[in-house]
Amino acid sequence: MIQHYLLRASIFAYFLISCSFLFGQEDSTQPKELNISYGEFIQKLSKQNLGYAAEMYNLSIADAEIEASKIFPDPELSFTAYDNQERRMKMGYGFEVELEWDLEMGGKRKARRNLALAERELTQLELIEYFQDLRNHSTVVFLEAIRNKLHYELERHSYERMLDLAKKDSLAFAEGKIKRSRANQIRLEAIAKYNHLQDVADDWKTSLLDIKALISQQRHDTVFVPTGNLENFDRVFNLEELIEAAKENRNDMIMARHQMKISDDKISLEKAERIMDLGLSIGVENNSFAKNIIGPTPGHTAVFAGVSVPLKFSNNRDAGLKVAMYEKEKAALLYQQMILEIEKEITEAYNEYITRQEQVLAMKTNIDQAESIFREELQSYLEDQTSLLEVLNAERTFSRIQNQYLHTLLNHATALVELETLAGIWDIDF
């Protein structure tokens, strides 16, 4: 009799633990939970992700580079004072003021400005590329969080089924209808389910931390709980249209085309740099009255202007121009290589997506069959028409297929994200 009470007490204790674990208790120390949809998540990502916010400073830097490219060469003002041995020879004093300025020829300023503008556009494209990569990664994190949430709920229901069955067998054992070994077996199965449920809950909590890290700028006590349906990822695509769309719309393709334009601007700048500049100068020279007894000289002021022309011996070495031309040829080859790789990448992603789509359809039927088998075995067990082992096997199969279905749904959604990323399109919303 004492063993009967101990067994029932242990089952009741596990039931209380599970209730507190599964449904939680109100506690002022618990973080605040806030449901967040995918659209809200992406909006917060664009405004609150610290990495993206840091990358946006590159635009400000590029704007500053444009302003710097507009600057004319600064003039140079020089002042010279001299003593013509006034103390010994009475030749007086003098001073000279000169203003010098380099006049750039060949459109150097315009070439610098065009290059700075082109590099600013490239910076804008790189920022878009950064956000797209961030969005793709964050979308997968969001999808995994939903999967982990559904997995937790699935394992919770599985545990609750075992717990309910353990309670029934405990009562049956107390009434002498079944053996103690049978009651203990189902109790141990419930304990194992509970331990597994704790591991799944840890994965779910980790997913929440991952989401919080993506859209939080500072530490706070709010936990963002993702909402959405993993079954809304069916699309109909035409492979050839995807390939053509990728050639036109993919950001890396646009960047490659723009890189060739930058190469042209660099060549133009190198050619402009080879043209000689003119140095302009204007100045005033003043000498005071010379009282030298041999050759007294009246004070006088001289005004002069001049032009200086540099001797561009460095033009015999056109290394800078060659580098710019080689960079253009390299950019053109890389662009051609990207075009050739697009078909392979998108075809592989398309086949992957179709395969995952077919797997989802197949798994739906398997779930219905597994649930039906489990219900039949459970009913037979309660009527003492089958063994506990048959019930446990049916329940494990049912749980395993449900987990596989969730994993297949995640793979299907991830395949769609990958395919649309490679094709340069985006209509993900769930």
Round the Cα radius of gyration to an integer and report it. 40 Å
Q: Estimate percent helicity.
A: 55-70%
Oligomeric status: single chain
Structural class: alpha+beta
Number of separate helices: 11
In whole angstroms, how far apart are the ends? 56 Å
Q: What is the string of SSEs from the N terminus onward?
A: HEHHHEHEHHEHHEEHH
How many strand elements?
6
Strand content: 5-15%
List the helices and strands and how they pair.
Blueprint: H1 2-23, E1 32-36, H2 38-48, H3 50-55, H4 57-69, E2 76-83, H5 86-89, E3 93-103, H6 108-174, H7 180-215, E4 222-226, H8 239-249, H9 251-273, E5 278-287, E6 300-308, H10 319-382, H11 388-423
Parallel strand pairs: 1-4
Antiparallel strand pairs: 2-3, 3-5, 5-6
Structure notes:
By secondary structure, the protein is α+β, with helices and mostly antiparallel strands. Helices cover about 70% and strands about 10% of the residues. It is built from eleven helices and six strands. The longest helix has about 70 residues, at about 110-175. The relative contact order is 0.13.
Task: Write a brief caption for the model.
The protein has 430 residues and is of the alpha+beta class.
Please describe the structure with a list of short key phrases separated by commas or semicolons:
alpha+beta, 4-stranded antiparallel beta sheet, single chain, 11 helices, 430 residues, two-stranded parallel sheet, 11% strand
